[in-house]
Amino acid sequence: MKKILLVDDSTAIRNILKTALFGEYEVVEAANGKDALDTALAGTVNLFLFDVNMPVMDGIQAVRELRKLPQYKTTPVVMLTTESREEKRQEGKAAGANGWVVKPCDPEKLLDVIRKMI
Amino acid sequence: MGALSLKGGAHRAVRQGKTANGRPLVLFAVFIAVAVMFYVLYLLVRGQDNIFLSAGIVVAEAAVLAATAVIFFMSFYRAQKTNDKLLRTLGGLVLTSGKLLDNFFHYFDGSFMLLHTVFGTESANGNKKEEAEKLVAALLSATAQDEDLSMKSKNTAERLLEGRAEGFQEIEELVAHSDNVVAMLARAREFLPEDAAARLDSYYKNIRCNEILSNVVVSYDFYSELIHEFVASIIVDLSKSSRPLSEEILAIKENANRFVANIKEWEKELTDEKSPKNFANLMASYNRQNADFGRLTHAIEANNARLEKRLVSVENHVREIGNQSSRVLSIAESVNVLSINASIEAARAGESGKGFKVIADEIKDLSDLTHTIIDGMADSMRQAQIEVSATVKEVTAEGEQLSQGIRGQQKEFSVFYSVLESYSKNFQSIFASVNKLIEDIDVHIRQFNPLFQLHELSVQEMENLNKIISEFLNEQRGEMNALIEGFTDEARRARVNTLIRNFEKKTISRFELQVLEKIVERYGFAKEMGVRKASLDIEIF
Q1: Do B538 and A109 touch (CB under 8 A)?
Q2: Distance CA B433, CA B425 (A)
């Protein structure tokens, strides 16, 4: 089963999104960008779902850091956020994200995006 | 005031939202209890060699599952309804607070513009100056009213969240009032001289500057407090529910998945040809046993009949022996009579008949002996006859009992067999309906998923909004105090510029509001609010 790292500072959001991924993917969680990097280094992750606005280290910064790691140069990263501004999207894209999904999202549509990537 | 037209439903919804908090927990507890029970039953069935018990457990479980599903869906729909109403309320409150906040910003914008106007009219024509001063008077009275409203509305937000109608009335009153002030300020814009910037210097010199600024600060405090309390109370109420709700949903999903896995394993056990619990094999083996039962009954009945026949023939033989022995007895009688006659004749013959008498006596003794033997034999025969007929009766009764027993067992067996047969027939449909049920639960969870996300996001957005408002209000308050206490014109001008720059920040919070409005709109809550519908926002780079 492929492993997805779900990064969001809200426990409730993580729980809710897990219900969509449960069964099809193994889900590991992190509450901010820094935790996410630590978790990513501890094991292999097949896809990342990053919130943008988070304490300690935000999602875009975390993606930049992630792309510096040789093992995660090409691993798919989807940003999952309430942000819909074009400049933020471009910032995410430049940092190395592969997709942008605005929350709240339809879990089926999110799964479609994930299935296309892994 | 589209948002406020929601007020009736909205305040009821808030109340329901509060009291409904316990329901999902009860639902959760029920689900966990049922899941545990299922699991225990499953373990029982797994360890169970008796197919009837297994079948019974499976049927019972399917019934319990159906009942649970009914309870589950009822609770789920109730929870959905409550959540829906809560979100509608939130939508209404967000738009109302947005409107208030908007007016608040206009108010300040306008206030400063009015200051420009009033203090810039010294060089304007007389009529304009008079009108401007009237506006200032109206504004002063409006800000005095703000103070009254401030006192009255201290707990407006709290009342709103308690779902009390007066809370909504007060908000409407406030919005109407601020609309009025904003309208006045808009009119004041007409007096804004083109060289406003150049006139900044002059208005600082006017003695009324501090008076108006003080009033502005009072209004400012009032709005700050109101908006703060309003937003904070919404957050407190909402955040209470979103996390436990998400945990429940996750637990339900996990249990449903586990249950499906168990059912699948079960199904495999019962349908796999190699499994000892395979239905087809069991049915075949029971069929064989059933045929054996039939043959056994038949054999027992046949044996019984043969035994009975033989016993009857034994009885007949005994009776025949009895008959023959009675004939022997009558011969012995005749011999006896003959011996008596012979004795008489021997006595009459005298001495010469003595030898004959001995023979006659012997014959008599023989006849007596025969009599005794035959009597004994007759007794034995009677006894034997009684015993034989008792045995015949016993054998017949026992045979009948045995046959009845076997027939009864056969009947019981065929009942079991038909139960098993119908269960086997319904087996696939039971599993199909269980799977369908779980799928339905899944679909519902999936449908509710964005709503639950929305719920949590609303809390987050409100928190962000409150933070931004709080930062903005604090900064402005500091600048205003500095402005009032400012000594030099230069310092005051710098403060005004800072204030104006701060106003530009309002676009951030307006953005936050737009996000919320978008959320509200996406899920159709916007229908009553007249907001346009947006498409789902996903992009792959």
Answers
A1: yes
A2: 14
